[in-house]
Design goal:
By secondary structure, the chain is mostly helical. Helix 1 packs antiparallel against helix 2. Helix content is about 80%, strand content about 5%. The chain binds zinc ion (ZN).
């Protein structure tokens, strides 16, 4: 095989690997964002549960205040009742006192229900705290793995970039420029083997017999008649 073609093939191999490393590096931040997003969702859920528990507790305290108000009212009614000389007023106060006591009973019943709800909410908060901790542990592991992957890829990319630059200096500029042009326009590979005796492995079209002969002869760089990629005869 032509020495330049051999060099171009090695260059292509390095280019492909470099491209792969760069693509992987490009997508790494997405991975990191996914880890962060999962943590944020978890944390929001935790905050919501804590808020639910606080809400129940403040509702219960509200009822406690209402009970205290009713008790104050009862004491006032009782004072009034003790001072009055009128029978109908005395009866009215008794009635008010009974009503306030019934209200207090109802309020205290709701308070008990809220206390049960608060216990359940607190348990949910505690359970969620464990889940959050576990998620943070997993996320820390993922982050460490992510950083390890990034370091490996960066190292690979740097090594390949240097290797590509080194090889490019050894390839005749015209051939190198042609290779770069084809690679740029095709986006995948610039050099492909002839397969099945007469087919370009880039565009999968048949090439002419004259081109096949030229490729086989190996005296110069030959391009596919259809797609323009550089074609070579696969070594047995
Ligand atoms: Zn082709």
């Amino acid at each position: 095989m032509l020495a330049t073609l051999e060099q171009l093939l090695i260059l292509q191999e390095r280019d492909v690997k470099l491209q792969r490393a760069q693509t992987a590096l490009h997508f790494l931040p997405v991975e990191e964002q996914q880890i962060a997003a999962r943590l944020a969702t978890q944390s929001a859920r935790f905050e919501q549960l804590k808020q639910d528990a606080r809400h129940i507790e403040s509702e219960r305290k509200q009822l406690e205040l209402q009970v205290a108000d009713k008790e104050t009212a009862i004491r006032k009614f009782q004072t009034h009742q003790a001072q009055t000389k009128k029978n109908d007023e005395y009866q009215a106060m008794s009635h008010e006192i009974d009503r306030a006591r019934r209200d207090i009973d109802a309020l205290e019943e709701r308070e008990l229900a809220l206390m049960d709800q608060y216990d359940a909410a607190q348990k949910a908060v505690q359970a969620e705290a464990l889940t959050v901790k576990e998620h943070e542990r997993v996320a820390a592991g993922q982050r460490a793995e992510w950083q390890r992957k990034q370091a490996v890829l960066q190292e690979q990319a740097a090594t390949l970039t240097a290797a590509v630059a080194e090889l490019q200096r050894q390839i005749p500029p015209a051939e190198l420029a042609a290779y770069r042009r084809i690679l740029q326009s095709k986006g995948d590979v610039a050099i492909v083997p002839v397969v099945n005796g007469n087919t370009c492995n880039g565009c999968h079209m048949k090439i002419t017999q004259a081109t096949v002969s030229a490729v086989k002869a190996g005296g110069k760089i030959v391009h596919c008649d259809n797609c323009g990629r550089i074609v070579y005869w696969p070594q047995p």
